[in-house]
Amino acid sequence: MAKSNVLECQKREVSSKGNLNKLRRQGLIPGVVYGRDISPVAVSVNYNDIFKIFRDRGTGGLYRLNLQGGDSVMALVRDVQKTPVTKEIIHIDFMKVVMGEVLTSLVPVIVTGEEDLIKQKAIIQIGLKEVDIECLPGDLPDSLTLDISDREIGDKVTVGELELPEGVRVLTDPETMVLVISYADKTVEEETPEDGEVVEKTETEG
Questions:
Q1: CB crowding 145-157: b at 16 or more within 10 Å, else e
Q2: What predicted TM-score, i.e. pTM, was given to this entire model?
């Protein structure tokens, strides 16, 4: 079973923009938990806690939300709102999941093992950063890892070549390009005569 991210959540009243900004100044991020069989619950989570999870593991994966009052909900992050300039998190939507039911989710593709290729001055062109997958909630990975340490310049990797954890099925077209490894572009400068230089042509006498 995939490891879940654990978050302590405080229930809050649905409030005005001013009160939401006050929450943020206190180091809390407003959010909402919703799902098929529950009424939406307004919550707040500690900014440092959620920032650390997003930094270390991304927004994907399964979350155990420990709600104030003793309730616990398994959920996915469905939306993260950020400020346009500083990219600071200002609101999070969580969707409750049913553990025995198959779900679909976007998960990021993390590329590793590119060090030797970079030393060879290769260019790694990323064509796809996320793939759509289907699995049970307990099998949901935070991400899919693509190790290119044994790849060579000129190689291409498609979705169908990704290694999948047990119980996970990719819904994205398997022929979709994930990345291409190519040589660095070389700009060839054409030599031109220096300013004032006259190029003479010699005519052949007939």
A1: ebebeebeeeeeb
A2: 0.73
Residue 77 clears pLDDT 80, i.e. is over it: yes
Q: Which domain holds residue 140?
A: 104-183
- Whose CA is closest to 104, among 112, 92, 95? 95
Whose tokens are 């420990």? That residue is: 66
Contact yes or no for 110/144 (Cβ under 8 A): yes
Residues 120 and 78 reside in one and the same domain: no
d(CA 187, CA 79): 43
User: Within a domain: residue 170?
Assistant: yes
Of the CA atoms within 13 Å of residue 203, those in its CB half-sphere come to 2
By mean pLDDT, which of 11-20, 69-78, 89-98, 163-172 is the weakest? 11-20
Burial (CB count <10 Å: 0-12, 13-18, 19+), residue 94: buried
Q: Which amino acid is at 142?
A: D
Q: Where is the domain boundary, 97, 125, 143?
A: 97
- Let me know how long the chain is: 206
